[in-house]
Amino acid sequence: MRIVDISPPLTPRIAVWPGDVPFSRTITCAISEGANLDLSSIATTVHVGAHTDAPSHYDGNGEGIGERPLDAYLGLCQVIRVWIGAGERLRPEHVTEPIRAPRVLFHTGTFPDPERFNTDFASLSPELVHELADQGVCLVGIDTPSIDLFDDKALLSHTAVAKRDLAILEGICLDDVKAGLYTLIALPLRLPGADASPVRAILIESSGGVPW
Fold first, then answer.
1. What is this structure's pTM?
2. What pLDDT score does 208 carry?
3. By C-alpha distance, which of 181, 197, 125, 117 is closest to 157?
4. Is the domain 2-7+46-205 a CATH 3.50.30.50 member?
5. How far does CA 41 lie from the centroid of its chain?
6. What is the pLDDT of residues 24-81, one digit of tens each?
7. Catalytic pick among 57, 94, 107, 158
8. β-bridge mates for residue 51, sequence order
9. Residue 171 CB neighbour total at 10 angstroms
10. Average pLDDT over residues 176-205
11. DSSP-assigned states of every residue in the chain
């Protein structure tokens, strides 16, 4: 069994959406300064790094992340590499291989550095969201900060996700991950009413190259 970590490190250098709360960690007490233990706190947006959006993030009547069932965030997953230009929406015709799992993660390569926020990342299209849902997909993920384009105020793909009740995983790192089947574990924190949650997203494969 092999564990593949697809979460970027959470440090003060990690990029967050422009205008959102950056990551910071405050040391309350430290052994190196004579305390009997280390103790610290963090402050950051709940959309930091690898994270799961809640329906309440894009739907005024949607659930908070703490109320979401966990089933979608754990189980058989398919990583798919796509060839798409910067600032484009991923459409059904870009996906040239069959969907073989109820959770699909797309590697676009358009947000290459988690510590530098580039606004020309690729996103999903509403058409692809609906097609995936028609094929039984319950979670869609992407290696960018959002399933919508940076300047899309209408949140077209988020709206499509809301209509089909899919789960979302954003901000994952897939550059070193081969396309194929894995087991995904990306459980959100139990934050009642919150619009998202950071996760430690991992993929698991067996030594034989099949899902665990």
1. 0.95
2. 62
3. 125
4. yes
5. 23
6. 999 999 999 999 999 999 999 999 999 999 999 999 999 999 999 999 999 999 999 9
7. 57
8. 170, 198
9. 29
10. 97
11. -EEEE-----STTS---TTSPPPEEEEEE-GGGT-SS-EEEEE--TTSSSEEE-GGGT-TTPPPGGGS-SGGGEEEEEEEE----TTPEE-GGG--S---SSEEEEE--S---TTS--TT--EE-HHHHHHHHHTT--EEEESSS-SS-TT-TT-HHHHHHHHHT-EEEES---TT--SEEEEEE-PPP--TT-SEEE---EEEE-TTSSB-
CA distance 124 to 15: 21
57 assigned to active site: yes
* Tokens 């991923």 -> residue: 90
- Using the structure block, give the residue that is written with the tokens 């250098």: 13
Amino acid at site 212: W
Distances (CA, A) of 134 to 62, 72, 85, 128, 145: 21, 16, 26, 10, 25
Q: Which residues contact 60 (CB under 8 A, 6 or more apart)?
A: none
In the chain, where the domains are located: 2-7+46-205
